[in-house]
Specification:
15 helices, Glycine C-acetyltransferase, alpha/beta, Aspartate Aminotransferase, domain 2, binds pyridoxal-5'-phosphate
């Protein structure tokens, strides 16, 4: 017999979520995750993926992955330290270091895993971490795993960061102090104030850690937020994902050779979880080559993002203060936000509502993720649908 206690726990909590309208039903796509997706037999303009450059369905990546499968098979067969390191894993890491302008890089199975791996490989209970309050869930979990003291910093508030850094340093309580931030914040699309963060880090001898999941492929001509600010030699840890703009799956840490050497002997997801598949590795490598060869996709992405933003703003929508292609359309009330997203869907636009607890109460939004793969016609159609639904619901 299975546990009655567990049954009671699950029943109670699932019912509670459903009652509050917070239970998320997941829609399975019947098509690739491109600019147009198929859902329940209907085609929709997709404004929800992180596939910024359209690389998830790019023929060049598909061909590279297919070749890799023929040459190496479908699985790496072991963790990296036993015999799961294929020569292509090493090549991918060399390419990532080149892409990020660092001495070295190490690949993981996901961006989430990077944060599970890297923070606790360096930080422990005698240390402190200054963490932006809007940091991604995987950063928060990675910090917790390290057992270091977590000091929450008001979002992008440099006075607060300086004050807390000073206090932590002067207390003499901690061996090491780290400052950790998203490069681009995924719900609002604002960019971390890295020049000021680096300045404060230099003043108080902080370790710097930037998770650039939403910045790579997007900012700095594709090389990311750190490059965007010209700080490649000033950030200790640069985290990236291979699953957003790169279009595949996986994650990496880029930094000094010694840091990467240490992660290879001390980070647990590297030591105890099987490595990326050959198809993932080679497709990711191809994507990075494409990004380094040309800024064409990056320019297309920005062009489309600016076009969508201008269109929505002109209609009178509140699109927040995004500095990147991430385009929130802030509705406010949670129920209305969900209704808005549902109506968009009925009219042919797939854009997800994001509400509390992912964002603060009363700031419910529909988040739009334009990509390089959208055509102007698709965006025009999406804007027209926004206008129709916005008027129907009295939002504009
Ligand atoms: C999306 C995201 C991740 C997770 O990346 P995956 O490769 O999907 O696991 C980690 N950190 C940040 C900041 C993210 O936005």
């Amino acid at each position: 017999m299975t546990s009655k206690t567990l049954d009671a726990f699950l029943n109670e909590n699932l019912e509670d979520l459903k009652g509050k309208g917070l239970y998320n039903v997941i829609d399975p796509l019947e098509s690739p995750n491109g600019p147009i997706i198929k859902l329940n037999g209907r085609e929709l303009i997709n404004l929800s993926s992180n596939n910024y450059l359209g690389l998830a369905t790019d023929t060049r990546l598909k061909e590279a992955a297919t070749e890799a499968i023929h040459k190496y098979g479908v699985g790496a067969g072991a963790v990296r330290t036993i015999n799961g390191t294929l020569d292509i894993h090493v090549k991918l890491e060399e390419k990532l270091a080149e892409f990020k302008h660092t001495e070295a890089a190490i690949a993981y199975q996901s961006g989430f895993n990077c944060n599970m791996a890297a923070i606790s490989a360096v930080m422990d209970k005698n240390d402190a971490i200054l963490s932006d309050e809007l940091n991604h869930a995987s950063i928060i979990d990675g910090c917790r795993l390290s057992k270091a003291k977590i000091i929450r910093v008001n979002h992008s508030d440099m006075d607060d960061l300086r004050e807390k850094a000073k206090e932590a340093k002067e207390s003499g309580q901690y061996n090491k102090i780290m400052v950790i931030t998203d490069g681009v914040f995924s719900m609002d699309g604002d960019i971390a104030k890295l020049p000021e963060i680096v300045e404060i880090a230099e003043e108080f001898d902080l370790i710097t850690y930037v998770d650039d999941a939403h910045g790579s492929g997007v900012l700095g001509d594709g090389a990311g937020t750190v490059k965007h600010f010209g700080l490649s030699d000033k950030i200790d840890f640069q985290i990236g994902t291979l699953s957003k703009a790169i279009g595949v799956v996986g994650g990496y840490v880029a930094g000094k050779q010694q840091l990467i050497d240490w992660l290879k002997v001390r980070s647990r997801p590297f030591l105890f979880s099987t490595s990326l598949t050959p198809a993932d590795v080679v497709a990711s490598m191809r994507a990075i080559e494409i990004l380094m060869e040309s800024t064409e996709l990056n320019e297309k992405l920005w062009d489309n993002a600016n076009y969508l933003k201008a269109g929505l703003k002109k209609l009178g929508f509140d699109i927040g203060e995004s500095e990147t292609p991430i385009t929130p359309c802030i509705i406010g009330d949670e129920v209305k936000t969900q209704e808005f997203s549902k109506k968009l869907n009925e009219e042919g636009v797939y854009a997800k509502s994001i509400v509390f607890p992912t964002v603060p109460k009363g700031t419910g939004r529909v988040r739009n993720m334009p990509s390089a793969a959208h055509t102007k016609e698709m965006l025009d159609q999406a804007i027209a649908i926004y206008e129709k639904v916005g008027r129907e619901l009295g939002i504009i």
